[in-house]
Design goal:
The chain has 697 residues and is mainly α. 52% of the residues lie in helices and 0% in strands.
């Protein structure tokens, strides 16, 4: 899980958010580098409306770009978007903690009084300092008293701070407001309501507006009393009090009528949505969200990503396709119902498979957006029914555009996927024609993935790594270098100073590892000259995400050579270059692999055939296996006794301590391991390894 994702999970827990209803419930997943994603993992979101997307991603694709919030720093991953991503990356910003984001989340509908004291203090201080009819002495005292109000919302806040000696009439108004604020944060809602009600007609503009807003907040917080458990989740079976919900709605509506563009209008609309959610008034709640969808993103008063998070959390759990008519909400639910049915999840709502008849029955709801409905029909044809010809009928070719919105992009990507499935000879040209218009975040990397998948399967790897290649995304190129590239291409990329340093490191690390393990010993020695003498040796050789410089110094080390008394590794490779069947050198290579945790390396794990990097590797030879080396030496009648004893010892230990083979190669049954154990004890009883080993697995 990324650090960004973990930070978001922790923050939502701290602020009392329940788990997103339709988003990923997993806390770890692996990326599937392909275009067609029917099952949601959390790691396979794309800039394509898709069943495999997190519902929040699909919603942002439909309602807006989800641009980063003002004043919040986008993470590096958002500035370098990839073809596949997790939800927070798409939201496009870092969460740095509750204090800096509390006001935003509060405005989006999280109505606890515990979130706003810091911002309330700032607003109060600014209003007092701007009020020239309050003398400086009174201003200083009011500001001191407000800053002294530090509630913890865990119970009674104790005696409220008192502003001493305030004399001016306007100062007295601020003092009365401060009394109401202290009561509010102490949870004394009756006293707070009385104070704010008496100030709603004040002749000071900030007090009059803020008091009316706070009167509404009082009722929102009254509606939340005993509604949530200790973890911030709604209590099961909690009965909302209709009268309290009505009062909260009425006060919020009153504020919005008086101040439709007021300083708290966005917050009030968020609180109104919260009230509808608390009161179980789903129809009104849905209407509020639909009204927001129809506004331009800059006029909503809420970021598209926050809106998607809120809808997923508050509304979608309450909906089915039977009680929704809005095309955006229907699209999100329909796509979720196109996922493969997961037997571990309930079959209510969005885990009930969608039928084509159900989808066709929704046509009237999309009368204002037929392109979106045709897309849903095409998505059903491709993801559920596996009918690419229907996709081509439903979605005309519109690849040559100056720019795509996300629906247009999704439609053309779906058409391209259908062309690929039909093995259309024009598929690659179609992807190339789309490239100039792929200008929104995450669009171009998705197209580059499509091109890379096509060229890999067309045995045109060289085209991907040509200087003029359109495939630039580092992750995509790295996967192909690690899994498909042959020695010549790897060597060329490793030595080409015009390409990115990261890619050169990936290429050289892959080349050296595979030459070492695939038996190209002299080539290894020749290419080892490219490793600087001071190259670092610590860390994982294939953890490329962490650095531009893989620890290639591991191949130069004269230590960490295992337990067989081996010479420095370069000498071992020189011996193998001269005599590839040399038992001692082969065992020393195996020891080097074991001691440096290279067993079943990432370089040897071919992706599934339907994913990027899943075709046949162009690197000659087979992945390295210590077990196969040991088997070969055990079966060699010419092998020296010491080497054979050590091979027996290590072959048995490949299965320690849990009976699973950790050395690669073809498994052997337990009876064979027992026979090796017995042979070591019988034929080489005086060896330290026979004396050391006590079990077989």
């Amino acid at each position: 899980m990324s650090r960004i994702y973990l930070s978001l999970v922790l923050l939502l827990a701290a602020l009392g958010w329940s788990a997103p209803a339709m988003a990923s419930g997993d806390f770890g997943c692996s990326t599937s580098w392909k275009l067609k994603h029917r099952d949601m993992t959390g790691c396979d979101n794309m800039a394509i409306l898709s069943p495999g997307n997190d519902t929040r991603v699909n919603l942002v694709l439909l309602i807006g770009r989800g641009a980063p919030k003002q004043g919040v720093t986008p993470p590096e991953s958002a500035t370098k978007p990839g073809a596949l991503f997790e939800w927070p990356m798409f939201a496009g910003y870092n969460y740095s903690g509750p204090e800096t984001t509390a006001n935003l989340n509060y405005a989006n509908g999280e109505g606890s009084r515990c979130l706003s004291n810091h911002f309330g203090t700032d607003d109060f201080v600014a209003a007092v300092e701007a009020e020239r009819k309050v003398p400086q002495r009174d201003r200083d005292e009011l500001i001191r008293a407000r800053r002294a109000l530090q509630p913890n919302c865990a119970g009674a806040a104790g005696a409220p701070p008192i502003a001493q000696g305030v004399q001016s009439p306007r100062g007295k108004l601020f003092e009365r407001y401060l009394t109401g604020a202290a009561a509010f944060y102490a949870g004394d809602y009756d006293a707070a309501a009385t104070a704010f009600r008496g100030l709603s007609g004040a002749d000071q503009s900030w007090i009059a507006e803020t008091a009316r807003y706070m009167l509404a907040r009082v009722e929102v917080n009254r509606a939340q009393v005993d509604a949530f458990d200790e973890y911030g989740s709604p209590k099961a079976g909690f009965p909302p009090q209709a009268a309290v919900i009505d009062a909260a709605e009425a006060n919020l509506r009153d504020y919005l009528r008086a101040y439709p563009q007021g300083r708290y209008s966005s917050s009030a609309r968020g609180l109104l949505r919260r009230v509808y959610w608390l009161g179980g008034r789903t129809e009104k709640l849905a209407a509020e969200y639909v009204a927001l969808f129809r506004l331009a993103p800059e006029k909503r008063g809420i970021d598209s990503a926050d809106l998607a998070q809120e809808v997923d959390n508050k509304l979608l759990p309450l909906l089915t396709t039977d009680n929704v008519t809005d095309p955006i909400l229907l699209t999100v639910i329909d796509l979720a119902r196109m996922r493969s049915l997961d037997s571990d999840r309930p079959t209510e709502c969005c885990n009930t498979p969608l039928t084509l008849d159900e989808l066709q029955a929704q046509r009237a709801h999309f009368s204002g957006n037929p392109a979106l409905f045709d897309y849903l029909l095409a998505a059903y044809a491709l993801f559920v029914d596996n009918r690419p010809a229907d996709v081509l009928r439903l979605i005309p070719d519109a690849a040559r555009q100056r720019g795509f919105d996300y629906l247009q992009f999704s439609r053309q990507m779906l058409r391209g996927m259908a062309l690929e499935q039909n093995r259309d000879r024009n598929a690659r040209g179609f992807w190339v024609e789309m490239l100039p218009g792929a200008t929104l975040p995450f669009q171009r990397p998705a197209l580059e993935l499509a091109l890379a998948l096509h060229d890999e399967r067309a045995a045109s790897l060289e085209r991907i790594f040509a200087p003029e290649s359109a495939v630039r995304t580092p992750d995509i190129r790295e996967i192909l270098l690690k899994n498909i590239a042959g020695p010549q291409l790897l060597r060329r990329q490793a030595r080409d100073g015009s390409i990115a340093r990261h890619e050169r490191g990936v290429a050289l690390a892959t080349l050296l590892y595979k030459e070492m393990g695939h038996g190209l010993y002299q080539d290894f020695l020749d290419d080892l000259k490219s490793v600087p003498a001071n190259a670092r040796a610590g860390g994982s050789l294939y953890d490329f995400a962490a650095t531009d410089d893989p620890p290639l110094g591991v191949f130069l080390k004269s230590d960490n050579l295992g337990d067989y008394g081996c010479v420095p590794f370069r000498q071992t490779m020189m011996a193998l270059a001269k005599a590839p069947r040399d038992v001692t050198a082969r065992l020393c290579l195996a020891e080097f692999m074991r001691a440096n945790n290279f067993d079943q390396s990432e370089f040897d794990r071919q992706p599934p055939a339907d994913q990027l990097g899943g075709t046949q590797s162009l690197f000659p030879g087979q992945p390295y296996s210590r077990l196969e080396v040991y088997k070969s030496i055990i079966a060699d009648p010419q092998a020296p006794a010491r080497g054979k004893a050590y091979a027996l010892y290590r072959a048995v230990n490949c299965y320690a301590p849990n009976g699973r083979n950790e050395c690669g190669g073809t498994d052997v049954p337990r009876a064979q391991r027992k026979a090796w154990f017995t042979r070591l004890k019988k034929d080489y009883p005086s060896s330290s390894w026979a004396q050391d080993i006590r079990y077989y697995w």
